[in-house]
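RECORD TYPE: inverse folding
INPUT: structure tokens
STRUCTURE:
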């Protein structure tokens, strides 16, 4: 379940998703609007269930694609199997072009 509010160029998103997959592909999900271009990326705050592992949902520049990354894993992208059975909760604001 997710929702968003867009005011001008700012998009605020919030939601949650239960991961039910053992795929070894990187976890990614789409945001409602393309993030502004450039070398920056938009981090959204996240929580993976009750797991205290520091993580972010990061939207790549010029895309709608968000990837779940963890600081513990060297900022590597988490795979579906890493998140399997977990509840990913996210919220944040990013800028569109």
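DESIGNED SEQUENCE:
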């Amino acid at each position: 379940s997710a929702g968003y509010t867009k005011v001008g160029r700012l998009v605020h998103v919030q939601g949650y998703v239960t991961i039910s997959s053992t795929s070894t592909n990187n976890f990614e999900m789409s945001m409602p609007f393309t993030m502004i271009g450039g070398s920056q990326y938009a981090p959204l705050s996240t929580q993976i269930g009750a797991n205290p592992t520091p993580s972010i949902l990061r939207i790549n520049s010029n895309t709608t694609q968000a990837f779940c990354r963890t600081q513990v894993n060297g900022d590597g992208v988490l795979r579906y199997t890493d998140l399997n059975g977990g509840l990913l909760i996210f919220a944040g604001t990013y800028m569109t072009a």
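NOTES: The two ends are 25 Å apart (CA to CA).
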